[in-house]
Amino acid sequence: MIIRTNRELKERYDELKAGCCFIGMLSFKSVKHRAFIDLLERGVRFFPSALSQTLGHSKVAQTLALRQWMVPNTLIIARRMDLMHAISTFNRLGIGAVVTKEDHMQCGLGVHRWRGVEDVYNQTPSYPLVLQPFVERYTDVRVIIAGDYCEAYTRENKNNFRMNLFAGGTSRLYTLAKEQLSLCHRVMERGKFPYAHIDLLVTGEGHSYLSEIALNGGMKGARITRDELDTIKKELLEEMAGS
Questions:
Q1: Helix 59-66 crosses helix 178-191 at what angle (to 10 degrees)?
Q2: What is the total count of domains within the chain?
Q3: Which pTM does this prediction carry?
Q4: Is 6 a domain residue?
Q5: Residue-wise over 13-52: b if at least 16 C-beta within 10 A, else e?
Q6: Is 117 helix (H, G, I), strand (E, B) or coil?
Q7: Which residue, among 54, 48, 51, 46, has the nearest Cα to 20 in the 3D structure?
Q8: 142 and 238 inside one domain
Q9: Is residue 36 part of a domain?
Q10: Residue 31 DSSP SS3
Q11: Both 41 and 78 in a single domain?
Q12: Bridge partners of residue 47, in order along the sequence
């Protein structure tokens, strides 16, 4: 059985068993993760995968699973004691300015720059959050990969360290190096992403790190249109479910 809408999924929820497939984004809202666990335990398969849907909606979950490709010393801060330990660690390493990312905020709205971890500690932020060293000079690169389609472009803003276009930035085409494309594919494989919108942080020294990844994202700056990309994604998911 292949289910293609959340309405049908809810109507036939108790009938689903091993071998059944759901194509689409699960929308059980506050009980989504419980539904994922229940259905996965029953052998139901998801396209996009349950892991990719979970990672795509949570910066903390991304850090948990994909930290090896992120800026060194990126941490998950789940409680105040974690911040206390981070103060000691970052001071020992000589790390000054830091960035925090709120878990479910998009478009750069949950990204904050601080002079140091001590400032974060004094503000009593909401947990959990992602903490990482601030990179002074970098290029923000958005990569879109869906099947055989791939494109990349930079996002620049001279008046804001948040480079995304939502914050008023501009874009230009970017040619990915072979190593950068390989990094994207390794991240997608680890997170079981069938397609992805990937943000890379490229330092002034030429090191590339994963910033964020999502199944869907902004299209401003892309050559491909939203409709064209959605068609590719839909065909890819149908092919995966059919196989």
A1: 110
A2: 3
A3: 0.92
A4: yes
A5: eeebeeebbbbbebeeeeebeebbeebeeeebbbbbbbbb
A6: helix
A7: 46
A8: yes
A9: yes
A10: helix
A11: no
A12: 23
Q: Give the model confidence (pLDDT) of 131-188 as tens digits.
A: 999 998 899 999 999 999 999 999 887 766 665 555 557 889 999 999 999 999 999 9
Provide the token pair at 215. 């199944």
Q: Which amino acid is at 192?
A: K
Alpha-carbon span 216 to 241, nearest angstrom: 19
Provide, for the chain, the percentages of residues in helix, strand and coil under a 3-state DSSP scheme, each rounded to the nearest 5. Answer: 40, 25, 35
What's the CATH code of the domain at 212?
3.30.470.20
| One domain, residues 144 and 233 | yes
Q: What's the residue count for the chain?
A: 243
Provide the mean pLDDT of the chain: 93
pLDDT at res. 107 = 67
Q: Which domain holds residue 80?
A: 72-133
Q: Read off the pLDDT of residues 19-53 as tens digits, 9 standing for 90 and up.
A: 999 999 999 888 889 999 999 999 999 999 999 99
Please report whether residue 56 resides in a domain: no
- Give the residue among 146, 143, 110 at the shortest CA–CA distance from 126: 110
